[in-house]
Structure formats: structure tokens, C-alpha cells
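Table S4 entry, Na(+)/H(+) antiporter NhaA.
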Amino acid sequence: MSSSSSPARFRLAPHELWRGIRSTARSDVLGGGLLLTATLAALILANSPAAPWYEAVRDFRFGIPEWHLELSVGAWAADGLLAVFFFVVGLELKEEFVAGRLRDPRRAALPIAAAVGGVIVPALFFVAINASSGAEVLRGWAIPTATDIAFAIAVLAVVGRFLPPALRVFLLTLAIIDDLIAITIIATFYTETISFPWLILALLPLAGFALAVQNGIRSWWILLPLALAVWAFVHASGVHATVAGVLLGFMVPVRPTERARVRTGTDADGAPVYDGLAAHFADRWGIVATLVAVPVFAFFAAGVEIGGAEGLVSALTDPITIGIIAGLVLGKPVGILLTTFLLSRMPALRLDESLRWPDLAGMSLLAGIGFTVSLLVGELAYGSSSVADDHVKIGVLVGSLLAAVLGGLVLAARSRRARGAASAG
């Protein structure tokens, strides 16, 4: 082979290189890895001599006071960047309800019910443990109810390579419904006062955004200002601004139409193949959520000063922390498995034939990885940088770590067994 032909063999066209980068960025493992890296960095900085610098950056305020938008960097990450994450969640939710797994009620019933059980039981655990602590403490009842999609799916991708694909589908469906419930909880229970004039005003750019995407407009210079206006008005209304991201996601059409579609290639006969705008936007903005929005939020939300052994003991003996850990590690799997078991006894609701109860047990443990939304609810319940919020962070981190380890061990063992059975067959 000549030396002149060798470079050409390994040279990638720009579009092929970009396709590879996008594929890597959408990787479950990469998303979980970035979250873990951001979390560890925050914990190290918050407990090192660099803690004053970290806190100064996190608490630095900037913005437009007249629009109720003078926020700290940490608040911009929670209210602003997480809106991007929830925009992608809104897109995925609509896709699932219109054309995906949630379209068939019989197929979706079990994971939907499991998600509901996985919300109710952890909340009951938290309330039972903190029943005598007063109303202010009980505001955190929703903290252990959320499942972090990125972390849970990343762990499953690492340890469950030989497990049935239906297990990932079940976990994804459960986590998506879990997010929908979490969004509803945030909008309903953690919105103290609502300014209806601002909320009504938000309907105008929201309608403009909906009209634009329904007509196939994808120009960022049209859609982005409308989306930012919706976000700003929702934030000013008192409703948590991440709800704006979900509303915007719901406006995007799922099925390709004559006006709103994106060509993705050709079929076997050479005819063009089209996607709806929801899949197109989820593809583009999912990368932003994975690489930027969620890791940056985690970096500023997870940094808690533990205070050495004494501080850790103090946090771990706080009923708030105990309630969160118990809710995530025990409440989640109990709620998911109990609900699934009871409903699967009904003739019309059957589990996928490839799923086994040990697989579901490991998956339900992974669902106890709360993290992103749990940290957000903790801030909303107790206020950022409060002692209670610091204990929330420790509880969420410890509970999520235990859930990840326990679920990972169970599923890794199941995966090894499945691999051995496949080899023997």
C-alpha cells in the first residue's frame, strides 16, 4: 500500500466525524460519566481549600432585577440550564405518548403503574420517618420520589449488556413517567405564589413557538427568542422555570407532516424518509442537555461541605437524611416491585415474557438513583445552602450511591448468568 493512500483510508468526512461525535455524546455511559465527574469535582472543591472560590462562583449573582432575573450562578443552572433538560424530557414524553411505548395502554400500563408506586411508597417512607419533625421538614416529602434517567440507564448499560432489551424499555418508560410526575409535583406543591398576569403573558410566546414549529420553522433566531420569552415569563410568574421547558417540548409535532418534517435519508426503494420535529430537536438538544445542562447543574448543586467525620455523622443521623436514603434505597424498589407484582396478576396486564423477577428487582434498585431532580426538589423544599439542604444533598448522594451499587451488583450477576446460558446454548 502506498504512503499517499494511507491517510485517505483513515480520513473522515466532516459529516461522518460529526455523526460519530453525536453518537458518542448520546451514549448512556458518557452521560452518566459526566454526571459522576461533575459530582465528584463539586464534592472535592466544597471540601478543600478551594471551597471559598467554589462558593463565590456558585453564589455570584447577575441578571436583570426588573424582570425578576437577578439570580446566582447556581440558580441560573437550576432554573435555566435544567429547562433545557426538561425541554428534552418534554419532547421524549410527547414522542412516547404519540408514537412510542406509551401509545399502547396495555403495553404501558405496568411501567406506568410501577412509576406511580415508585413515587408514592418512597414519599410514605420519608413522611413516616419525619412524622414528628414538623411541617417545615415534611416539605421534603417528594425528594426521594424521582429517578435520574441518565445515571440509572448508564449503570444498566455498563452492567447489563446481556440482559433482555425489554428491561431497558421498562426502566426508560418508568423513568419518563417518573419525570412527568416530578414536573407535576414541582408545579403543584413547590410553587408558593403565582402571578397570573405573568403566566398569561407566557402564553403569547408559547403560542408563537407552537405556531412556528407546527409550520416546520426550525430557525434558531426565531424559536430561541420565543423560548426564552416563555421561560422568562414563567419564571417571573413564580412557577418553577423548568416547567417552561416541558411546555415548549409538548408544542413540537411528533409525526412528520408536509410542513413540519426533517429528511433523514432514503428507504430501500430510494424514497425519502422523514422524521418529525420532536425527534429532530431531541437529537440536537439532547446533546446540549447531556454535555452541558445536567453536568453543570450537578457541579453547582452537589457541592456540600461535609465537615469531616463529625459533620457526616450529624447529617446521617438527621431524620431528613435517613428519610431520603430509606425512600431511595427501600421505598423505590418496594413501590415498583409491589405495584408490578399486584397488577401483573391481572389477565390483561402481563409482563414481557423475557423479563424475570430478579431482573426487575435489580432494575427497581437502580430506580432509586435520584440525584438530579431530587437535588432540585431539595433546594425548592428547604432553600439553597441551608443546613437542611446540605443534609438533603448528603442523603441524595448516599442513597443514590447505595441504589447504584446494589442494583448494579444484582444486574451484573444476572447478566453474567445470561451470558453463561447463551454460551452454553
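The radius of gyration is 23 Å.
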